[in-house]
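User: I'm putting together notes for a lab meeting next week and I want to include a structural view of one of the chains we've been expressing. I don't have a solved structure, so I'd like a prediction I can at least talk through. The sequence is below, exactly as it appears in our construct file.
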Amino acid sequence: MPDNNFSYSLCNPLSALLNKAPQDFGRADLIKIIEQKKIERITFHYTALDGKLKELRLPVSSRKQAESILAEGERVDGSSLFKGMVDPSLSDLYVVPEFKTSFLNPFDQGSLDFICRYLTKDGEPAPFALDNVLKRAVELFAESSSLTLYALGELEFFVISEKDKNTFPLLKQQGYHQSAPFMKSGEILNEIVRLITQITGAVKYAHSENGSIDTIQSSNEEIDGKRAEQLEMEFLPKPIGEMADALVLARWLIRNVAFQHGCLATFTPKLEEGIAGNGFHFHLELKKAGKNIMVGADGKLSEPSLRLIGGLIEYADSLTAFGNTISSSYLRLVPGQEAPTRICWSDLNRNALIRVPLAWSSLRNLSRIVNPKERSEAGDTESRQTVELRTPDGSALIHLLLAGVVMAAEWGLKESKSLGLAKKFYAKADAFADKKFLKAFPLLPASCVESGRILLKKRSLYEREGIFSPAIIEYMAKLLRAEDDEYLAKKLSSLSGKERLHQMRRVMHKDLHRH
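Assistant: Thanks for the context. Below is the predicted structure for the 515-residue chain, given as structure tokens.
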């Protein structure tokens, strides 16, 4: 049952004003907000081919104009937003606001903002729009399985700032859950958490992560000589389509908060050799009639969970085409950095491609162990079991990646061979010390070029049922080929230590703001 108590300070401000959940917002409600808050403009946001939010600002001078904007949307140039995929002669698209996504812009007082959907001249969802690809995949999954796939993202990023006096230095790779005064970005992180929580309602927690760089050395003057702290935000599970929108919006908010503080936020996969990279892990959860079905009556993973894992294994190498899209992605996927290199799954182990984390499956009310005087029962006893996909990084095209994940889940639930794949590719937690044993599992792609080649080979897994268009597959393969990194690892290994590090930094720092 939804929580409709709108009195908490971090609840959605519009919900508090209207005493309604966002999914119940109507045009009349939003007109009320515009008049009550003296809104000067409506800002439309929509995700373009590069995975970033774009915007269109529409001034509001009358009620009639506001009603027209909300009822009809506006017209945009699709050939610019989807360059290389949309013919300029057929480029006009409608962008139409989805009312439940509305929020007060924290960086632009007087603006009421929306996430919009792309429609064609015929009023149909534009088939090449990234969010519409995911929407089609979600619809296929629901029709095929009668289940709902939930997801939560773990969004890692670096905040890069000017160096001050070197007091309470944060040591290399010692940032995990660090507190002030060693962690310097606490004020920024608090603001990020507040805004993303109010706007999306989907933040679980945030903390300092392992990576820390005292002084960045780079040929990129935007970051050279500055300090970097790695942070992480984990989200609460939401239906996978909603999670994609929340994460794209979160990246926009994080960048803007950092900018307001005179800093830079980057999700780039790798910033320095020997420093943890920015992963973008996803936890997946199957629900039936609103209940988690990941664990069976015997306390072990249920058959649907194993089928989900089997589907992810079948898709794993080709999913890198959407989740690991730049050359530095493959400098992160190396042994010893809690990043996967082979296709397998395991319990708890953070080196596995797919991990089954702790989830309170057989334990409840843990606080009573620590607080023996507590006698009351907690209200929520539903299982929180998930499986975690650990391949993706900060270069991911979120909507396309999650559309691929949905296709993998749908395939796993309906194909009989998925259970066999789950059995075959399981590795016990202690198996990762046995190099001979690990060699039995296939390697993940080692470059963008290889990833693109695998995507083309497996394109039928994505194009089935018309979910991914051939144009999207061809576009992604071309984008990956353009990285021209197939022999990068070999080239780097042939260089002397100083020159190798210099060239690695050039690769790592060239895409600070790609997605």
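A couple of points you could mention at the meeting. The chain has two domains: 13-126, 136-363+384-509. The chain is about 35% helix and 20% strand.

User: Perfect, that's what I needed.
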